[in-house]
Amino acid sequence: MTAAVPRQKDLLQIRGMTADDIVAILDAAGRWTGASGAADTLTGRTVVNLFLEPSTRTRVSFEIAAGRLGAMVVNIAATSSSIVKGESLVDTARTLDAMRPDAIVVRHPSAGAPAIVARHTKASVVNAGDGAHEHPTQALLDALTIRGRFGRLDGLRVAIVGDIVHSRVARSNAQLLTTMGSDVVFCGPRSLMPEAMVSIVEGGPGRLTPASSIEEAVDGADVVMMLRVQHERQQAAFVPSLGEYKSRFRLDAARLERAKPEAIVMHPGPVNRGVEMTPEVADGPQSVILEQVANGVAVRMAVLEMLIGGN
């Protein structure tokens, strides 16, 4: 039986969500998994995609999700918004609110930006990634992918490897997975690991622990999630060289053999081929990267339905 989730205005972060909240969204998304047809759930609704940071997968995924549910979609990019003319984010939110959209999907390079938009509009606001803070729908689609393969989330060992300190994906996934009972292991160069590990997650039966090497992190893992080195968020040289990063933290076939035989390999994209993982791993039988992309549409359909789909 699908768990009931209370009606809420916005989806800004995973932190604060209960296991029942998460299961309700995943169950709702399951109805759309593999679907390609249209529905009329959001006919007459308007969804604005306010993407003030580059994106392909997330923006297109939200656009397809809203369109399949019958909503009208308006896309706004940074270069085509009045923000380039000096308009503040608050004024942009108020301007959009005056046009009465039903939902605003916000991606922004600064942490907390979607929450600011939410405070200045009656529309439902979905965080599509804000700086190094959170990316809730990415964590939900990752969870849907993992649950689809293993039938559960509790009791799994999930290794998240790479640029942890700048990764909103790592933060949202760590919170969601530990809430659902998975044990999460963070691994990366010391300069790219968060100082206060305990502050990353709150509550939940699962644990969050660091690993000193990729071999230690991957050993016995059910899921190996590789992250991109986010040069655009780095204000200093966090790794001595790309060559050293690859030699110590790239996932190759030999390192993957340390995981469980049925382990899956994930990546939120875009993949820097040959850096985070070798092509044989990225394109190999254990890779579920394209499955993640497909599940992103299903999760975002479920989220939009939950927020603005009426009763």
Average per-residue pLDDT, rounded, comes to: 92
CATH superfamily of the largest domain: Aspartate/ornithine carbamoyltransferase
Q: How would you characterize the largest beta sheet?
A: 5 strands, parallel
Structural class category = alpha/beta
Please indicate the count of domains.
2
Beta content: 5-15%
Helix count, per DSSP? 11
The CATH topology of the largest domain corresponds to Rossmann fold
Read across the widest sheet, the strand sequence of neighbours is: 7-6-5-8-9
How many angstroms separate the termini? 19 Å
Helix content: 25-40%
Helix-strand string: HEHEHEHEHEHEEHEHHEHH
Count every beta strand, where a strand is a DSSP E run of 2 or more residues: 9
Radius of gyration: 19 Å
CATH hierarchy class name of the largest domain: Alpha Beta
Assign an overall shape. Answer: globular
Gross CATH architecture of the largest domain: 3-Layer(aba) Sandwich
Q: Which spans have pLDDT < 50 for at least 5 consecutive residues?
A: 1-6
Describe the structure.
- This protein has 311 residues and is α/β, with parallel strands linked by helices.
- It has 2 domains: 19-133 and 293-308, 3-Layer(aba) Sandwich (Rossmann fold); 136-288, Aspartate/ornithine carbamoyltransferase (Rossmann fold, 3-Layer(aba) Sandwich), CATH 3.40.50.
- The chain is 35% helix and 14% strand.
- The protein is built from 11 helices and 9 strands.
- A 5-stranded parallel β-sheet has the order 7-6-5-8-9. A 4-stranded parallel β-sheet has the order 2-1-3-4, sandwiched between helices.
- Helix 1 crosses helix 5, helix 3 crosses helix 4 (113-119) and helix 5 (136-150) packs across helix 6 (168-179).
- The longest helix is centred in the last third of the chain and has 20 residues, at 289-308.
